[in-house]
Amino acid sequence: MPELPEVEVVRRGLADHVVGRTIASARFSGERVARRHLPGPADLAARIAGNRVESARRRGKYLWLVLRAPDGSQQALLAHLGMSGQLLVEDPAAPDEKHLHARLVFDDTGPELRFVDQRTFGGMALAELDDDLVPETIAHIAPDPLEPAFDAAAVVRAMKRRHSAVKRALLDQGLVSGVGNIYADEALWRAQVHGERLCSALTKPTLARVLEHAREVMLEALGHGGTSFDALYVNVNGASGYFDRSLNAYGQEGRPCARCGTPIRREAFMNRSSYSCPRCQPRARPRRVADTPRPGT
DNA sequence: CTTTTCTCCTGTATGC
DNA sequence: TGCATACAGGAGAAAA
After folding, report:
1. CA A182, C1' C6: Å apart?
2. Which pTM was predicted?
3. Beta strand residue intervals within A62-117, DSSP E
4. Annotation says A272 is catalytic
5. CA(A100)–C1'(C1) in Å?
6. Over 60: is that where the pLDDT of A138 sits?
């Protein structure tokens, strides 16, 4: 549920509070948090001890710390928050959270970094970095709309070739990353497009408009510190953003559409929920009246 | 190859 | 009050 803006808020917190410090020791508890690190949690902890944090980076919903080992080599400590993951910068004396899965202690005895995750869909792993300082294990994740490498025209061309629902494409991190259920619904509401319309049936300008709205809504949310529905989406200090007050579709079932007043509907989609305006976002493109056969005529 | 479905997890809300 | 069920849903494996 933390999507691009929420993850970026966390990244900035790490840049402020963790970059430049050296990890003295770490502990990963349980098998799930480090499940993508095959040698196991103890090995992961041992491999990052003594490393200095050089930068905090992000692509889409992935977040990583670029680490410099004492021998001069670089590696990445990659993290994904999943649905309920939190990275918190806290006083070492603070009591352990119920779902504390990882703890990084620094050699300056300052605040420690904790990974807390109620549902443990998230996790941490070690990765090799490519020449652009992107972890090799996320090479399949496409650039997100807020990074310079993002090529909107190329994404539009790729979308146009797809025979799947436009919302499914927005959620495909291999096509464009960072967009989750919340911002997909918001972008589609702004673009006045129903999420179940097929990419291949939409015009390139329409696809471009959807994509541009996704970029804009995520940028606005970032300006508000992200979206929060409950205490699960927080920055490194445990505080929530307030973009949820600005949502026009997601979670708004039954409330009047801000454009036309029609009650927002909720529909099942991909075993999830989708929210849209029945009037502004018709399922099929409205055809000219003269071309539309009327039943019974 | 492309596209869809399933699975992982636990706290909260709702219904009987 | 207690218990069962639905829901939140990102990502990757597996299936179609």
Report:
1. 20
2. 0.92
3. 62-68, 74-80, 85-90, 100-106, 112-117
4. yes
5. 32
6. yes
